[in-house]
Amino acid sequence: MDYQQILEQIHAEIVPTLPQGRIADYIPQLAHVNQRSFGMAVCDTQGRFASVGDADERFSIQSISKVFTLTLAMQREGERLWQRVGREPSGTSFNSLVQLEFELGIPRNPFINAGALVVTDVVLSHLGDAKAALRDFARRLSGAADVDYDYSVAASEARLGYRNSALANFLKSFGNLENHPEAVLDAYFHHCALAMSCGELSRAFMYLARHGSNSDGAVITPGQTKYINSLMLTCGTYDAVGDFAYRVGLPGKSGVGGGIVAVMPGMFSVCVWAPGLNASGNSLAGTRALERFATLTGQSIF
Ligand code: GLN
Question: Is the CB of 167 under 6 A from ligand 1?
Fold first, then answer.
């Protein structure tokens, strides 16, 4: 398979569509990015790597970090985690409050914000310094020792993070946070503010394409890998998850920074970045690019 040629074809097709969609500006610092940015990188289980466009430029990974936090929490809690968070698609926006009240403080899944706050709480309880833990984990998985937080993005979100604050306080009122909401929010905002490139993210996600292992050995078990990939397929792109599965046919996780990572178990991990978002908060051009990638490579899990 000539990944390089496929990425170049996709790049040429996608460039004219980049002005479509809307950059997230509810986190003011995210609005400073150039809407014409586009990067894509793929890494496969035979050690091949290809990239195109701005694949080396770091961007705010935002909710893609929820896969890393979930992995750390599953390593430590295993099945017990599911007493505090569900495994069903939400059908609502990623930062919805109504469902949480209705369902008595048990978030639908670990990828909506409420669920990720519970997962962050678990990591905080187990590891103390959750910020250092996640940054070091991302460094190890990507092989890039200088991966770090963009502190201006974390501060920008914290300043206006009233909705996430409401979710955290709600969770606490239901007894579903062990730590103080402020401590959980601080870790969560930093995790979302991790800055990584498409190349780094595609490498970091390879453990999900390799049944839980990377070149250093096992990160999680093959069974846990199946769980995480299944959750990405059913919950990774929020209320657009059905459309994403229909068009792309791969487990994927998006973030409001415009990144999406998708995994073909046993074969490859691919990351795309294009900051203009659709109404569900997923990269518009990124979703199209992944749809084209699945078509041109002839690969999907279906
Ligand atoms: N930090 C963002 C938020 O909590 C993450 C959302 C996302 O990427 N979907 O709103």
Answer: no
